[in-house]
Amino acid sequence: MGNKRGGKHRKLGRKAYEKALYDLQVELCRLQAWVKATGERAVVVFEGRDAAGKGGVIKRITERVSPRVFRTVALPAPSEREKTQLYAQRYIQHFPAAGEIVLFDRSWYNRAGVERVMGFTEMEQVRRFLRSTTFFEREISETGIKLIKYFLHVDQDEQERRFLSRMTDPTKHWKLSPMDLESYRLWDEYSIAYDEMLRATHTPDTPWFIIDSNDKKRARLNCISHLLSQFDYQAIPFEAPELPERETVKDAPKDGPQHGIRIPTPF
């Protein structure tokens, strides 16, 4: 995606980025049509550092496709009832039916990341999770569900810059939580946890794909391009329908709604 200078990519201009993104989103629409036509099922997992840009990637994937085909799942902390269920149960209920791709904004890997580092679970449960997850994911694949796993990495300086931006930008305040601040403080603890997680669950059948997300624009383009490459899809011919003639009804209002309060248009 462009030339390098001094070991770093040249900055990607907005026009070039938006053109590349649009082209990829057109391909996502083609993938969508193929998934609907073939009944393909896929689960895409997004994990990584806090402020690594997982939400931004998912937003660009989904903003021009149908939420009925590309479903995003971002689960809150488990309820007291969910804590008594099998660990994977709250995730499995969101798995795709035919013709769906489910995007997990964080997933069952919470157990090996935040739950481990923050002490929400015992280390023996973490070890059990790491031992069993490869078998769980093999079962997912053997049922015919394509499983794709992304880990977004951001370095310490860039994470700090993004956290500071969240503190000063009112439109980003909601992105900053006490857990984010703890993840900043416990960078090394998370490094250890993620290293063990990736080592234990990176297999030929369900590999981890690492996305360098210090450059948000490039990360989004690289991730979407790679995601498309994981499907052997074909363009489904589209036949544009003809608009029918409108029927005329004698007493139908001609100037829009006749009841309710019209909001003025100051812009």
Give the structure's gist in a few sentences.
The protein has ten helices and seven strands.
Throw out a few tags for this protein:
43% helix; Rossmann fold; globular; alpha/beta; 267 residues; single chain; two-stranded antiparallel sheet
**Strand residue percentage:** 5-15%
**Mass-distribution shape:** globular
Enter the CATH topology name. Answer: Rossmann fold
Cα radius of gyration in angstroms: 22 Å
Low-confidence stretches: 1-7
Instruction: Tell me the domain tally.
Output: 1
Strand order of the largest sheet: 4-5-3-6-7
Mind describing the biggest β-sheet? Answer: 5 strands, parallel
Number of distinct helices: 10
| Average pLDDT score | 94
CATH second-level architecture = 3-Layer(aba) Sandwich
Ends apart, CA distance between termini: 38 Å
- Backbone structural class: alpha/beta
Domain Polyphosphate kinase-2-related: 13-235
Region (Disordered): 248-267
EC number: 2.7.4.-
Subunit structure: Homotetramer.
